[in-house]
Specification:
- By secondary structure, the chain is mainly alpha-helical.
- Helix content is 53%, strand content 0%.
- It has a domain of 49 residues.
- The protein contains five helices and no strands.
């Protein structure tokens, strides 16, 4: 059998999705009365990382999202309670 050619890995960065997630996180954090500093301290996530998530500069891991949701005492789905505006070509 012939080995199939390896596909080149493509880094996925969904700018619209990350922007909507950032906006939603800011809204929820403010509603819950957390500052970025409070959220960073309570979740044991670096303040700079919270700031980068809220400015769509990084693509957070699922584990990071889980920790943020637990800290804010919300279902994970609440962070993703938004609708996409653009249809993305896949």
């Amino acid at each position: 059998m012939q080995k199939s050619k390896k596909k080149k890995r493509v880094l996925i960065y969904d700018e619209e999705g990350l922007s909507l997630l950032a906006k939603r996180l800011k809204e929820i954090r403010a509603e819950k009365g957390f500052t970025q500093e409070d959220l960073a301290y309570e979740s044991d996530i670096a303040l700079s990382q919270i700031a980068r998530i809220e400015t769509s500069r990084i693509n957070p891991t699922v584990s990071t999202i889980f920790r943020i949701a637990r800290t804010l005492d919300i279902p994970v789905s609440e962070l993703f309670n938004f609708k996409f505006q653009k249809k993305q070509n896949i």
